[in-house]
Amino acid sequence: MIEAERLTKRYGEVVAVDDVSFRCEPGTVTGFLGPNGAGKSTTLRMICGLTPPSSGTAAVKGVPYRRIANPGRHVGVLLDAAAMHPGRTGRETLALTARLLGVERERATETLERVGLPAKAARRRVGGYSLGMRQRLGLAQALIGDPSVLILDEPANGLDPEGIFWMRSLLRDFADRGGTVLLSSHLLREVEAVADRFVVIAGGRIVAQGAKEDLLSAPGPMLVRGLDPAALRDALTAAGLTARPQEDGTLAVDGTAEAVGRAAAAAGVVLLELRQASGGGLEELFLSLTTASAAATAPGTPAPAVEVAR
Fewest CB atoms within 10 A around its CB: which of 49, 77, 106, 184? Predict the structure, then answer.
């Protein structure tokens, strides 16, 4: 299990992560999603004890990561596949990891085969590896201690479609055998295919979290178009409704049709369109939650959040 409780990280006056709380249960894959700069990597580093939080706590298997004895035997971590010694071979890299964790040297060969790095590739120096090969080696390092928890940051970077499908199968099998997976990735379709739950972060804050089927089946925001777009947006703002411009020229509004209609009528704005967006998969959910997130979740302002739990 992974637990984050009100995690916050400040760098001077900049709030990189703000009051983030979520749980990852055994037997599940949790997709941790957000645009670049949203705070995903900082959050993962705090969970793994690499970055101290300004406030809040994080625990893995019930205790802070730094208090886990020989953590690689319990938690597999892949945060940066480039952070490997380029002069060592893949086999040397994994053999050293095995020695540090106190596992049998033979597991290095087994794990290299498991992640798709054959003997010929394992004999090559890491400096000559492609990004995809480094990702496979990094995942081998995460798996060699036979952990029950995996924390992975963009593990599919550099993988070809076959490699992405392979990783999806590996992570699904790991969770189905009782493991806990926290997966950060910008490949939304792949996350949607493998994850049981989503945690969406924008501007350093959680904007939605819950079971996949509940979040993706939840009705979308109201979509509205007016004869005078600027006047409509002003009317909605004056009524306390958040309006986000969409690519098709409509405004996405977190409110009921009645609230939108009353706001427009009070301002004398003629509406050309008013309808509720249907759930359109993870990409639509992600875009609807993170569009204009910099303004909606600026430090010091209330951030709208959606939580759907079963």
Answer: 106
Residue type for position 47: I
Amino acid at 194: V
Which residue intervals of the chain bear CATH 3.30.70?
218-300
- List, in order, residues 6 or more apart from 222 with CB less than 8 Å away: 252, 253, 254, 255, 256, 257, 260, 274, 275, 276, 277
- Amino acid code (one letter) for 76: G
Pairing of strands 251-253, 271-276: unpaired
What CATH number should be reported for the domain whose range is 218-300?
3.30.70
Alpha helices in the chain (DSSP H): 40-47, 90-101, 106-114, 119-122, 131-143, 161-176, 188-194, 212-217, 229-238, 257-266, 281-290, 293-296
Whole-angstrom Cα distance, residue 178 to residue 265?
A: 54
CATH code of the domain occupying 2-215: 3.40.50.300
Tokens 């939580």 map to which residue? 307
pLDDT by residue, tens only, the chain of 310 residues: 999 999 999 999 999 999 999 999 999 999 999 888 889 999 999 999 999 999 999 999 999 999 999 999 999 999 987 788 999 999 999 999 999 999 998 889 899 998 988 889 999 999 999 998 999 999 999 999 999 999 999 888 888 888 889 889 999 999 999 999 999 988 788 888 899 999 989 889 998 888 888 777 666 678 999 999 999 999 999 999 989 888 788 998 988 899 999 999 999 999 999 987 765 567 666 766 666 454 444 444 444 444 444 3
Q: Nearest to residue 215, comparing CAs of 288, 264, 270?
A: 288
